[in-house]
Structure formats: structure tokens, C-alpha cells
Specification:
This is MarR family transcriptional regulator. One of its GO terms (molecular function) is DNA-binding transcription factor activity. The protein has a single domain, classed as Winged helix-like DNA-binding domain superfamily/Winged helix DNA-binding domain (Arc Repressor Mutant, subunit A, Orthogonal Bundle), CATH 1.10.10. It is about 65% helix and about 5% strand. The chain has a two-stranded antiparallel sheet with strand order 1-2. A hairpin with a 7-residue loop joins strand 1 and strand 2.
């Protein structure tokens, strides 16, 4: 089952839609934007650790997201040398649009399945959510 879930996650992940006005976002930027939205106020080091990226790669991706108006940097109140990364409203809208496009592609694929498969997947949704929570807790 783990291999099947990995393959499914990869197929879904590859379907990064091009967004009007912003253009396509590479995988790293999409992952980074989601991480910033899920945990606003993280440092570059924290974001790098959470995503398993090298800090220079994270910094480069953040420059792209910043130039596109999707995130902003703000100085840490306790240590002005440290930057905290926050999503902008545009970043939140872009993230929601990407999530909706991914969901739509999954819904389209589900519509092609026999009713028995759709029902089995619907019934497994709670267990899959619990698995996702357990994996997040282990991070």
C-alpha cells in the first residue's frame, strides 16, 4: 500500500497547474509556499529543515516567491538579523487555486472509476487522513 500511495502522491504532485498572472511554479516553490502557509513566521533555516532542502536552495526559491508577491520577509522582533517568512494574500490565493486544480484533477480521475472503487476510496478517506496526521506528527 505504501508504494501505491507514493505513486499516487507523485502523479498528483506532478500536476502543477500554470496559474494565470503568476505563471508556473516549480515543485520547490510550490512546496515552499505550502510550508509557509502551513506555518507562517518560520525562518529560512526552519523552512529548509522542514522540506529537507539546503538553505541556499530555500533562499533562492524564497527570492522567486517574494518577487512574485507570494511571500514577504519580516525582521524577527527578538533578533533583527533573522527574517521570518509570511504568506501574502496573493500567496494564499495562489495556494488555494493550486490546491483546487489538484483536487479537480483527482475528482476527474475518480469520475472514471467504477462505483465500487469510488465507494472504497470514499470510505478510506478517514483512515488516510489519520495516516497523514500520524506522518505529520512524526516530522
Amino acid at each position: 500500500m505504501a508504494v501505491t500511495l507514493r505513486e499516487l502522491a507523485w502523479v498528483i504532485h506532478k500536476r502543477i497547474p500554470e496559474r494565470a498572472g503568476v505563471g508556473p511554479l516549480p515543485t520547490t516553490e510550490v512546496a515552499l509556499l505550502k510550508q509557509v502557509i502551513d506555518g507562517p513566521g518560520q525562518t529560512v533555516g526552519e523552512l529548509s529543515a522542514a522540506l529537507g532542502l539546503r538553505q541556499p536552495n530555500t533562499s533562492a526559491a524564497l527570492r522567486v516567491l517574494t518577487s512574485r508577491g507570494l511571500v514577504v520577509r519580516s525582521a524577527d522582533a527578538a533578533d533583527r538579523r533573522t527574517s521570518r517568512i509570511h504568506p501574502t494574500e496573493e500567496g494564499r490565493r495562489e495556494h488555494e487555486a493550486i490546491a483546487a486544480a489538484w483536487a479537480a484533477s483527482v475528482d476527474d480521475a475518480l469520475d472514471t472509476l467504477p462505483e465500487s472503487d469510488r465507494s472504497a476510496l470514499t470510505n478510506a478517506a478517514g483512515a488516510l487522513s489519520a495516516l497523514a496526521r500520524a506522518m505529520h506528527a512524526a516530522e
